[in-house]
Amino acid sequence: MTSPATILIVDDEKHTRDGLRLSLEDEFDVYVAGNLAEALEFLRNDQIDVMLTDLRLAGESGMDLIDQALQLPRPPLCIMMTAYGGVDTAVDAMKRGAYDFVTKPLNLDEVEILIKRALKGRTLEKENVELKKQVERKYDVEGILGQSEVMKPVIEVIEQVAPTRATVLIEGESGTGKELVARAIHNLSGRPKAKLVTVHCAALSPTVLESELFGHEKGSFTGASDKRIGRFELADGGTLFLDEIGEIDASVQVKLLRALGEQIIERVGGSKPIQVDVRVVAATNKDLAKLVQEGKFREDLFWRLRVVQIKLPTLRERKGDIPLLAEAFLRELAELNRKPCKPLSEDALHALLAYDWPGNVRELRTALEHGVVMCNAARVSQKHLPPYLTGGTGILLQKKSVGNGSGASTSSFADLNLEKMERAMIDAALQRTHDNRTEAAELLGLSRRTLQRKLRELGRVKRTVK
Ligand SMILES: Nc1ncnc2c1ncn2[C@@H]1O[C@H](COP(=O)(O)OP(=O)(O)OP(=O)(O)O)[C@@H](O)[C@H]1O
Ligand SMILES: [Mg+2]
After folding, report:
1. Is 17 exposed, middle or buried (0-12, 13-18, 19+ CB in 10 A)?
2. Distance from Cα 364 to the centre of ligand 1, integer Å
3. What separation in angstroms does the CA of 352 have from each of 270, 363, 380?
4. Distance from C-alpha of 291 to C-alpha of 171, rounded to nearest angstrom
5. Share of residues in the chain with pLDDT > 70 (%)
6. What angle do CA 119, 122, 125 make, to 5 degrees?
7. Where residue 104 falls among pLDDT bands split at 50, 70, 90?
8. Can you give the pTM of this predicted structure?
């Protein structure tokens, strides 16, 4: 059971204090104070939920008390008690942040109802804050941004798999966030000696890769003048991230298989088996299953790696996330480049939504960095973005305004509300697909029915495209 709420009654007249205390103490923890100093002491030392104060406190003012109480780190809800006729002052108190007022002579039932209502409001407020936090958390897990229908399940899998020992295979085109996800899995893994060790497999020849992974003994091959500890041993107790796993040579694949299966490695040129405790996360921008079919990747290794598979969607499959990503990148890149953070103009947003992003999120980030660096105006607009975004195949949308068809396209990204963004994105999708709603829905990551509903809400059912 939760503890009762705490109420502080401040009045210079003893009989009022006692009367209120008697009527409230069955339900609440009641404190009483006769002057400002006493009241402030309670407020500073105890968590008071509701303060009920008289306006006149023998030469002191209840208004001053409310002002001071509201400055505290955890302010109470303040209710002003005022004599009949003092309503103007009470209204003034509410303007300054008081929750409500009651007039004297007091109706004790009324006071009780008022306190309960105030407390209920506060609980709801707290719940809202908590809910909002949860929602925000979902949009940003370890820096992985995404609220589109295709990203939500990905984020859920990451959260689910991270605290386990399971080997994870992350697949996705270049720039879709594979490394970011690997880091997130590691950060959320809670492995006791947590250390993330990365190996870029494609960059190394088979011999070097092997000694990089497993280490080598002194003199084991030409040039091996010293003993070397491999990445598996370095990652002991933590996570080993094998990036571009699709590129590794057959000879290394065999050794990796054993290391993954038995958690035992041998240094090159050594014969002593070494037990390790390593969680492996691998990534590839290749279709590993296809490589298996083509005989270029061992099937047994493939299954060992792909205990859990995370397929990262391309950015063009989740254009709905572009506004969210763009806003976060603009903020981050402005800080990084020591430039003021400027909002994105509508025409720039349109251009971002119309482009196909072969380089995915990385390319979006780079394009926005271009925008941040080139912009000396009040907002980052299309002309500050790299020219290839709107040139070349030159897709659409430049001067088209969003909103209800009127107004120039100059309002800023910052003052775009959700509805406006939705309009902009739906417009962009419909234009791209020449008003094919099934394709537009797909592009937006919505079902066709949801798109239809949104169009109806936006009054666009009979929309015609020029
Ligand atoms: N969902 C996302 N939210 C925020 N930033 C992202 C997201 N996905 C990718 N990024 C950012 O995009 C850039 C590229 O991501 P990352 O290096 O993880 O891609 P990758 O898939 O490993 O690419 P490659 O195959 O080329 O190595 C990074 O700056 C990363 O922070
Ligand atoms: Mg990478």
Report:
1. buried
2. 10
3. 54, 11, 12
4. 13
5. 88
6. 155
7. confident
8. 0.61
Q: Is residue 110 part of a domain?
A: yes
Residue identified by tokens 């509508």 is 346
**3-state secondary structure (DSSP) of residue 25:** coil
What is the tens place of the pLDDT at every residue in 111-166?
Answer: 999 999 999 888 877 777 777 666 655 567 889 999 889 999 999 999 999 999 99
Closest C-alpha residue for ligand 1 atom 15 = 177
Whether residue 95 has pLDDT greater than 60: yes
Q: What is the pLDDT of residue 440?
A: 83
Nearest ligand 1 atom to alpha carbon 176: 21
Nearest C-alpha neighbor of 53 from the set 110, 84, 3, 99: 99
Give the mean pLDDT of 399-416: 36
pLDDT at site 270: 86
CATH of the domain at 398: 1.10.8.60
User: Is ligand 1 within 6 A of the CB of residue 322?
Assistant: no
413 CA from centroid of ligand 1 (Å): 23
Single-letter amino acid code for the residue at 424: A
CB 144 less than 6 A from any atom of ligand 1: yes
Neighbours of 192 (CB within 10 A): 8
235 and 332 housed in the same domain = no
Cβ atoms of 285 and 178 within 8 Å: the answer is: yes
Q: Is residue 407 part of a domain?
A: yes
At 317-362, the pLDDT tens digits run 999 999 999 999 999 999 999 888 889 998 899 999 999 999 999 9
pLDDT at 300 over 50: yes
- Same-domain status, 163 and 278: yes
Contact between residue 82 and residue 90 where contact means Cβ atoms under 8 Å apart: yes
pLDDT value for 402: 35
Annotate 373-409 with DSSP letters as a single string: HH--SSSB-GGGS-GGGTSTT--S-TT---TTS-S-T
CATH code of the domain in which 49 resides: 3.40.50.2300
Q: Would you place residue 429 in the very low, low, confident or very high pLDDT band (cuts 50, 70, 90)?
A: confident
Q: Cα separation of 357 and 204, whole Å?
A: 29
415 in any annotated domain: yes
136, 156, 170, 180, best to mutate for ligand 1 pocket (most atoms within 8 Å of CB): 180
Gap between the Cα atoms of 129 and 320, Å rounded: 25
So what's the pLDDT on residue 17?
93
| Ligand 1 near 439 CB (within 6 A) | no
Q: Is 285 in the pocket of ligand 1 (CB under 6 A)?
A: yes
Number of folded domains that form the chain: 3
Please give the C-alpha separations between residue 316 and each of 148, 319, 322, 362, 445, in angstroms, as whole numbers.
12, 5, 9, 13, 10
